[in-house]
Amino acid sequence: MNSRKVLIAMLFCFAFISASAQVKVYKGNSSYSSDVICTLRGDKVYKGNSSYSSDLWPFGMR
Question: What pTM was estimated for this model as a whole?
């Protein structure tokens, strides 16, 4: 159920973010940087707090 909420949140964010914006998805109600599940930047999803191309979703694939 939690992964379903995360997926819905990610899809919702994709629909409304601009190319230069960055959105971080956290575990539950947390706001700690260590609890970042993924980072949304433009039309890409990165692992955790990263913005490196090697951390793109699916991780390591281009």
Answer: 0.58
